[in-house]
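Why this split exists: single-chain examples teach little about how molecules sit against one another. For that reason, every record in the complexes split bundles all components of an assembly together and asks for one structure covering all of them. Below is a record exactly as it appears in the raw files.
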Amino acid sequence: MSKKVVVLAETRDNSLRNVSFEAIGAAKTISEGGEVVVALFGSDVSAVADELFEYGADRVVIVEHPHLKYYTADGYNQAFLAVVEQENPDAIVFGHTALGKDLSPKVASRLDTGLISDVTSIEGSGDSAEFIRPIYSGKAFERVVSDSKPLFITVRPNNIAPLDQQVGKGGSTEKLTVDITNLRTIVENVVRKATDGVDLSEAKVVVAGGRGVKSSEGFEPLHELAKLLGGAVGASRGACDADYCDYSLQIGQTGKVVTPDLYIAAGISGAIQHLAGMSNSKIIVAINKDPEANIFKVADYGIVGDLFDVVPLLIEEIKAL
Ligand code: FAD
């Protein structure tokens, strides 16, 4: 039976994040030919609605308010509940991002429904859809079915393919006025740290360093390699704890979860807590001077060697291409 699915789009600096398109892809599978309605929040975001149609949205509901310029749990919760009240959806899809992880339990509890979080793939469609998600820090996967109303899932970035882009595909846009009141927090401004320009959570290539990198200067070749490959730099907690890099780069159980096409781990031992954040990457290349290092158990390609020899060689070879 076809369903109405509401997706929460995510923006950063008034651009849509890729996970929004992936969430629409998941919603299409669940809707089985029904309607996919995208909720778009911000203070001046109408201009990006067309891109949502290109990726499969049938309708976009825009809530604009000065207090929605930056995410706050209270503000987004009020706006999303207003969309749910208007649409009465059969299912809801969020990205499993920092925002989605924060907001989805609040919305689920307000709607008194279940939540299947961190979905990495969907088998079947409509009522017979089964949701696959990692458990035990990625050591196993479970298959979940749900009879919650509405069905509510979050999808891990970079796992569910968005639909092929159909430029020119239109749909209807409507504005919903929501009175955002009684906020406990109002964010006036966000100052971001300078980054290499590629968002680590959505990067297609991640070059990560561990304690084996030995210093913040040791990370420089990793930055150069990441830049050459159009990717982002990540790190183990060991490297962050040693102050070689910022905690915003930490990947793992208590850091970011990444699923790039290519993950290069340099000087990382492969502790279970680190694997929890990267073992779903499509191709893993490990560089470690210890042939017994645990990281080689999950690597597709292993290079036993000193990263200070191997990384410059890789840079040289890539530059020569
Ligand atoms: P190490 O284990 O010290 O490994 C360094 C590696 O570098 C070694 O394998 C060594 O052979 C290699 N090496 C050294 N020199 C070179 C060289 N010149 N060339 C090549 N290789 C070299 N960790 C995370 O990463 N992310 C998390 O989110 C996380 N969460 C945690 C949560 C909890 C509750 C706990 C208890 C721990 C958590 N940890 C996490 C920590 C985790 O257990 C490990 O301590 C950490 O991942 C180790 O980091 P590392 O691999 O960089 O360092």
